[in-house]
TrEMBL record:
The lineage of its organism: Eukaryota, Viridiplantae, Chlorophyta, Mamiellophyceae, Mamiellales. SUPFAM superfamilies: ARM repeat. Transmembrane segments: none annotated. Keywords: Cytoplasm, Protein transport, Repeat, Transport. The keyword Lipid biosynthesis does not apply. InterPro entries: ARM-like, ARM-type_fold, Importin_beta. GO terms for cellular component: cytoplasm. Its main location: cytoplasm. It is found in: Cytoplasm. This is Armadillo-type fold.
Length: 847
């Protein structure tokens, strides 16, 4: 049997209903071999199958199978085809796509895929071949067919090409948008849906050019106009597709729209109306509408903060709109209403980790909380925080209290504590009582709220509520469901980070036992998280942990030996190694069980080259802690460990992570930066030649485009960079050069960094480093003057972060905001600056 006949015979056999027959299995195997064989036989197979796809003697199912396998074979065969074969393939593929019999549209998905694969194979303007533009225009011509199935096939194929071809279709985007918009008025519902999806695919393309802004804005207006009619007709299927495409339009970069971004307001208004309509389907309609509002908060923040000038009528808060309030001020009240809707939570004790559940949930309440979380991070406190507090005050005694606490937790997380700290006395007192409630749902919601407060309202929580918080967290750790545990561990770790010593001692036995029990949990994620938190507790408790150290080390060592080779087992092993190193750093390496120190050093050193970010993160943490404990004995590992840390800091993380969002890369970089400071602090002299290179890495990690926690950690590490020189005798030119570079970096961060936490770390580090440097060498006058000038900038409130803070304070006063941002961090900043450059009050006032 010839190859052509064999291919068609196989296609017929595969379409038969008897799937267990020997004929079917033999045909499947033969066709599979042809689709993945050498280019010569695969080329013949493609042509044979496409000819079968247009044959009138085959059934729809058989033709569909021909198309599916032809697409697979085409990927392998295209490169070896001659120009004539390519032309023939193009002709057959388009003929199959626009088959006259396709009124039932049965084979359309397969044929759309065939043409899309063809488009990905061709080269633009290929000699003697089939050009991509030629294919696009041929497909686009189908939009003018008298057959609705052809118009739908055209739209669906062009949408698929936009998605798969990326920038190769960029030149066609504007033409395609015009074609899609024209099809929005088609009499056939399937065609309209395909056109809507097509607009969404163009908008979702990563290579959308700024020149496309006006066309996309026009699409937004057209879609909203059509969606209003669709809403009246209660066509929820089409409405869902329209909302998905509006979501894609909202996701387009703000600079693409430019002055045309007012079209987003029409989407905003419609999405809000749909999201608040409880009569609509939650999953298909209300959830996509709520997601649009979240994307607006993230992508078009500046637009939402503008004053409303009557361009749209939201009709939700006449009091605010009557005063010409911001658009965001009209969004918050209805979002709070949606967030208070009841949710089907199922079994609250289910095996569910809980972290990120709002973002993963499709319930309107969860999505409303997600939107409020996003808005809280970019809007003044009086627009989001105050309404959330008022809501909590109003509902705390009723059945809606759990939902109100969930809203408040989301807003606290979004603001990172801004505007919440001044309410701590009342909030903590209320939460202490709520935690005694018999209502499990209320306790769960309050647990998350308390954890968000403990995590984000630092250092105030650690300074004023330490014993209360450790007692509450211990109780929650032992009695709360798994869905809350991620928040509890985050709160406990943050409290430990900001607290030392005896405040945790009364709860230490219970905490250690609870965490050890969780490390035995069948969920590897829970076990790994508990192991990491155990290290934070040990670090916080210091000498108070000594009675628990020996038993805990043996326990963790056994866990390491018992961990399997799965992904979860590997993470648990890595976290255990880092925690054991933390404990040894506290109680001393002499407390290590026999062989443990060698095991930790060798395993961590090997893990620095792992392909797993968690393994590398834990290796940096482990070696950093051991370096401080070993001091000069760490020298054989120092250079390799520091080199690996520098390599980790050189990884590029997307600018989207400039707030408190963490990824595996960022967490590894934070561990690497902290480890570098610990390597410096070990004092090993072999690091001296390596210090300029590590300083460059820390400077790169502290740039404003990196996330704030990483930047703070990098600057903190710089504080120890002179330690390897402390034992040096006499003046050294290399040390002076390092001094000049280090103080230059710190001065730059003090003057120009927009984040107060980074500036505080820099001014504190500068003060400490000046004392160290002066004990080793006589610093050049220009270095001393530079540090004094930088300190004076802080004292005179002329740094960038101080200027921006005062601008926010002034804006809050103009908006009659009762709550100004807490400024304790700025007072601390000035205190440290005055240590470097003391000035009289009259000197400061005169400037």
């Amino acid at each position: 049997m010839s190859l052509d006949v064999d291919a068609l015979a196989c296609a017929r056999a595969l379409a038969t209903p008897n799937v267990y027959s020997v004929e079917y299995e033999r045909a499947s195997a033969a066709l599979e071999r042809m689709a993945t064989s050498t280019s010569t036989s695969a080329r013949a197979c493609v042509l044979a199958l496409l000819e079968g796809a247009v044959m009138t003697t085959l059934t729809s199912a058989e033709r569909q199978m021909c198309g599916v396998v032809a697409a697979r074979a085409m990927k392998r065969a295209w490169e070896g085809m001659d120009a004539e074969s390519k032309t023939r393939v193009r002709t057959l593929a388009l003929r199959a796509l626009f088959d006259e019999r396709e009124r039932d549209r049965g084979t359309m998905p397969a044929m759309v895929h065939v043409v899309n694969v063809l488009a990905t194979c061709v080269e633009v303007d290929a000699d003697g071949g089939v050009g991509l533009v030629e294919i696009a225009r041929a497909v686009e011509a189908g939009a003018g067919s008298a057959l609705a199935s052809h118009r739908e096939a055209s739209a669906r194929t062009l949408a698929a090409m936009c998605e798969s071809l990326g920038d190769r279709m960029a030149s066609e985007h504007e033409r395609l948008l015009v074609s899609f918009v024209r099809l929005l008025a088609d009499a056939d519902a399937a065609v309209r849906v395909a056109a809507v999806v097509g607009i969404g695919k163009v908008a979702s393309s990563w290579c959308v050019a700024p020149a496309l802004g006006p066309a996309l804005a026009e699409c937004a207006v057209t879609l909203v106009r059509g969606a209003r009619g669709t809403l009246e007709a209660r066509d929820e299927n089409l409405l869902g597709h329209l909302l998905e495409t509006m979501s894609a339009l909202v996701s387009v970069r703000e600079e693409v729209y430019g002055s045309h971004n007012v079209a987003m307001l029409e989407i905003c208004e419609f999405a809000l109306r749909v999201a608040t309509d409880a009569s609509l389907d939650t999953g298909a309609v209300r959830s996509p509408a709520s997601l649009i509002l979240t994307k607006l908060a993230k992508k078009h923040t500046e637009l939402l903060t503008e004053t409303m000038d009557g361009q749209i009528d939201l009709q939700y808060d006449p009091h605010v709109l009557g005063k010409g309030g911001s658009i965001a001020s009209a969004l918050v009240p209805p979002l709070l209403t949606i967030a208070m809707e009841s949710e089907v939570s199922g079994d609250i004790e289910e095996d569910f980790e809980g972290e990120g559940r709002d973002e993963q949930s499709s319930s309107p309440a969860a999505l409303a909380r997600s939107t409020l979380r996003s808005l809280a991070g970019v809007l003044p406190n009086h627009l989001v925080v105050d309404p959330a507090l008022n809501l909590l005050e109003r509902l705390r005694a009723g059945t809606s209290a759990p939902a109100a606490w969930k809203v408040f937790a989301a807003v606290t997380e979004g603001t990172r504590g801004d505007g919440v700290t001044s309410h701590l006395p009342a909030l903590v007192s209320e939460l202490k009582e709520v935690m005694k409630s018999c209502d499990v749902n209320l306790r769960m919601a309050a647990t998350e709220a308390l954890c968000m407060i403990a995590t984000h309202c630092q250092p105030e929580m650690a300074d004023e509520y330490t014993e209360t918080m450790f007692e509450l967290i211990t109780n929650m750790l032992m009695n709360s469901s798994r869905s809350c545990q991620w928040a509890i561990h985050g709160a406990l770790s943050k409290m430990c980070e900001n607290t030392l010593g005896e405040s945790i001692a009364p709860q230490l036995p219970a905490l250690v036992e609870a965490l050890k029990a969780q490390t035995m949990d069948q969920s590897w994620r829970t076990a790994a998280r508990a192991t990491s938190t155990l290290g934070a507790v040990a670090q916080c408790s210091l000498d108070f942990f000594t009675p628990h150290a020996g038993e805990t080390l043996l326990f963790l060592l056994e866990r390491v030996r018992a961990a399997d080779q799965s992904t979860g087992g590997m993470e648990l092993r890595a976290r255990s190694m880092a925690t054991m190193a933390t404990i040894l750093g506290i109680v001393g390496i002499e407390s290590a069980p026999p062989g443990l120190l060698e095991l930790l050093l060798q395993t961590a050193a090997a893990a620095l080259n792992s392909s797993d970010t968690i393994a590398r993160e834990c290796a940096h943490e482990c070696l950093g802690k051991l370096s401080v404990a070993l001091e000069e004995k760490f020298e054989p590992f120092a250079v390799d460990a520091a080199s690996a840390a520098v390599t980790a800091l050189a990884q590029v993380e997307a600018p989207a992570h400039t707030v408190a969002v963490m990824t595996g890369v960022v967490e590894e970089q934070m561990a690497a930066a902290e480890a570098l400071g610990q390597y410096f602090n070990s004092g090993v002299a072999c690091l001296r030649p390596f210090l300029p290179k590590t300083l460059e890495a820390l400077a790169y990690a502290s740039e404003p485009v990196r996330c704030t926690p990483l930047r703070v950690t990098a600057i903190r590490a710089v504080e120890f960079i002179f330690t390897p020189w402390m034992s040096a005798e006499g003046q050294d030119a290399n040390f002076l050069a390092l001094c000049a570079a280090t103080f230059k970096l710190l001065c730059d961060r003090i003057r120009t960094d927009p984040d107060a936490a980074v500036v505080l770390a820099a001014i504190q580090g500068m003060s400490e480093l000046l004392d160290k440097a002066k004990s080793v060498a006589t610093l050049p006058e220009d270095v001393l003057q530079g540090t004094k000038d930088a300190a004076d900038v802080i004292i005179r409130w002329q740094s960038l972060c101080q200027i921006e803070f005062e601008a926010r304070e002034e804006a809050a006063e103009n908006d009659n905001d009762d709550e100004s941002e807490d400024n304790d961090i700025f007072d601390t900043m000035v205190f440290w600056a005055e240590r470097i450059s003391p000035q009289s009050d009259s000197d400061a006032d005169s400037d």
